[in-house]
Fold these 2 entries.
Entry 1:
Amino acid sequence: MTKYWLYARLQLQNYLIYRVNFIFWRFQVIISFITSYYLWQAVAQQRGSIGVYSLNQIYVYFIVGYLLRTLIFSTRTADIGGEIQSGSLSGRLLRPMGVIKSALGLDIVDKIFNLGFMTLEFGLIIYFLRPDIVLPSPANLLIFCFLTLIAILSFFFYSLVISFFSFWLDQAWSSRFLLGVVFVNLFSGQFIPLDFLPYPIVGLLKFTPYPYFFYYPLRFWLELEPPSRLLEIVIPSFAFLGLNYFLATRLWRRGLRQYQSYGH
Amino acid sequence: MVIRTFLRTWWIIAVNNFQNQLLTPGSSILFIIGKLFNFVFTFLVIVAIFSQIPNLNGYSYQQAVIVVLVLNFLDSLYGFLFRAIYMFRPVLLRGDFDLDLLKPLPATFRPLFSGPDFLDLPPLLIQFGCIVYFMIRYQFALSPVSTLIAIFTFVLSLLLIYSLLLIIASVCVLTTEVDNLVWIYRSFIRAGTVPTDIYRGAFRFLLDFVVPVSALITIPAQSLIGLLTPTGLAYSSLITLLFLLVSHYTWSFSLSRYTSAGG
């Protein structure tokens, strides 16, 4: 365990090499949040509500969503795709530790580091925007935390799967762009609560892992899901976690068999 | 002479880039699919908004559709022309930029024009077709004068994005940071999904004067739907002029600080 901890600490030092880079990254995350927040504020203010969401619920959706984005979608697993493509994955393979386990260690450090900055930013958001954040009932808060934990693990393995596609694809960034950026951003509900979309699209998205990363945990925070729907959401969340884990471990073993480290 | 060299070099690099992208057709297709999904989704956002409210601060559904189409069209156009900005950081980290400065080309060539992205062309053509189709379908007629004014606002928008990206490239020379700055700009651009008139307060100020999404997206869109005012046109012209001046000053300043030391 010590070696994973040391490796994670080295990652932390890596962050501090390009400090401006990190500060701009955090600033970009804030701007992204502010854009969504003001867009939906401008839309919702015309009527005081939009769909089943009150004005305040819309605010809370994006503010608590800001917290979720940091917890769930901050990851270093995307780097592995680039390493496979360039051949520098060999460096990882020579180390006396499991690649998936070390990736998990790095992700934990990454999330803690981002969470530290996010706490500061969150304070500023609360101070300037003064939203009326109502905590959910203890039961819903517990479900929210539980679904968030599943989402963190599920997204970790999902992101690994995308990186492992690089064993077979010429460009690591192409699959990352489609599956890891476009699909995740659009279909997880980060830009728009998914129930605003036409019903057939929402129905289709239920059969993909994306709403379970972000949208459903938030729905429980906002108490928009009745307790009777709990199993309908928890079971697919677990199923996608299992599927992503299975695919990640299987693709890793298969990919390694044909990895030649030549780079391109 | 310089312009001829510039255009010839750009053409050679563009052909090379295109050939490179043809070498990996699978990856290129994934990129194009992703871009098309993005396009369709922003369209769906407008559909979703108007399924909840009858009009958006005075804008009808038809007008909002043209605004979101213009956003996508200009975003693809700028991606096609200026994709090189994403690849500028590695050049600086290696300390290779001075090799470009020795060439008889404008110093802005490498950070802005050296990587036209042909994967943006299919969405660009589709979006242009959609603008024409919906303009006809929703009966937004343009007189010869308003067509000229519309072209002028699109040219201003192009000059403005050039200036913004040049400022980002200048910061990159000074700090070796560019990726997240581009993402900051892209996050702001997303606010242009709807006309920027609907925003209020400090955020509106940011969109008008700091990252002028209003002049980049809303004003060209307004010129197509007959909502452009003389004040809007004057604002767009002045802000573009201001950004051109500032960007060339910051670029000259950053070049004077360039050390070729890498990072």
Note: Residues 128 and 147 of chain A are 29 Å apart (CA to CA).
Entry 2:
Amino acid sequence: MLTEQERERIRAEAAHYDYPQAACVEALKIVQEGHRWVSDEHLKEVAGLLDMSPAALDSVATFYNLIFRKPVGENVILLCDSVSCWILGYEDICAHLKTRLGVELGETTADGKFTLLPMACLGTCDRGPAMMVGSDLHRNLDNEKVDEILGRYRQTPEA
Amino acid sequence: MANGSSMDKPLTGDLRSDGAVLDLAAYEKVGGYEALRRVLKEMTPADVLKEITDSRLRGRGGAGFPTGQKWSFVPMGENAPTPKYLVANADEMEPGTFKDRMLLEGNPHLLIEGMILAAYTIQATDGYIFLRWAYKLAAERIVRALAEARDKGYLGKNILGSDYSFELDLHTSAGRYMCGEETGLLNALEGKRANPRAKPPFPQVSGLWGKPTIVQNVETLCNIAPILRNGAQWYLGLSRSEDGGTKLYGVSGKVKRPGAWELPLGTTIREILERRARGMRDGHRFRGVLPGGASTDFLVEEHLDTKMDYGSVQAAGSRLGTGLMVVLDDKTSVVGMVLNLERFFAQESCGWCTPCRDGLPWTARILQGLLEGRGRPGDLERLEMQTRMMGPGNTFCALAPGAMEPLQSALKYFREDFEKLIPKNDAA
């Protein structure tokens, strides 16, 4: 179940538009803020709030790279795999991350701390390789810097 | 008064070197919102349209359509449909492109003033900034700038006491390249999958919720206030080409100093690569360049003196695109780079039309086969067939034809790199 506060925020977003459906991506992001991902139950609830069928909402949810329809970890790592970062060493960084985390792309670590995902161009090509961890952008990556960054997120207690 | 640097560099001259944002007071200090004050007092929408048309501003998002002409298609007058919409395309996702981020993070009011002026010209009442999810800092700064502009009476009802009203909001997306396509973006804003729409009708006539809509790239819109402040003749004088203005150019890849710079439209590739990006890193040799993002044809050494303007790059066999270059060096695998590009396009295809949905993964599989030692005679011909099957006119939107540009030009300029991955068929 969504919290009453979440439902209220979604209704408020929908009120910005003549057509409530226009708020659906924003609504799904509100769900993810509280629950990290969008379960079938949450999807149905949101669809009801926006006067959409669950199927129509799911067609939108599954369209976007950053709406998660499966559980993700506490920190989602989005590693840029587009052309400039690829030229600048994406493959090495990716291999290093997989080793350090003990996961493949698309997987979550056993402790639930990290999910590792490839991501299309992050728009910071002059400072690649780049990745985002949650909302934070990290650039000019090398293996050492990756270790240091992972260490920082490992220490952060869950909010 | 605008200061000296912003007269040469209207887009970036006022950006702060420490990366801090220009807030409303700082923006006003360098002449911000002067153009809006003057336009609302002295100019009709038709006057503004003429100034923009005379400036020869063309779209900076990739397609290069003349801005004044685009706006002229919007129905005007008392019988025009309402509401009308203006949308800033800030979904910068073309691989190799990082220019709009600079403007959005550094000077959001330049975009907002440009949008109010553009909206006034087409008499739009509502606007959206369609921002990609990843630009978190830009989102924060835009939200603050919108609030500042509302408080000061630049946005909302009866702007600066005039009878013109315009509401502007931020929409943040959730990551998908297709949202950058004009009609895909409109579907996304309506809360649908970002599939492209059939044209005609064009968005200028029937766009967001079926109403007249202009969708314009961030960099394009950031030019509007400077043009109206300083005039079309000044704008034309900034350029080294037949079209007006400056352009944000950039370089990524194995160069000494990657980055982005605002330079006269028509600066040569050589000047950007050698003077701005300081040439190749030691031990690396230049082999080619995608001049304007992932969906533009490779250019090579013989093209280095090409001017980076719409006509010249086209004459050289590519497109200006976004104007941000990706450099291919001699230590990077050409086939690997093309595979990376085609995988991106295959993944980001919306799947709406068959050539793109099936052709792009097929293309990527052939390229992957070549790299994994599974190349077969006929593979290059099969790749060439793809470039024709997914060429212009065979797909619903420009995604697949764009995807074919680096492939077709790589097959032309770097054919030996592909050929050596195909085993000689001696037994046959």
Note: Residues 143-155 of chain A form the longest helix (13 residues).
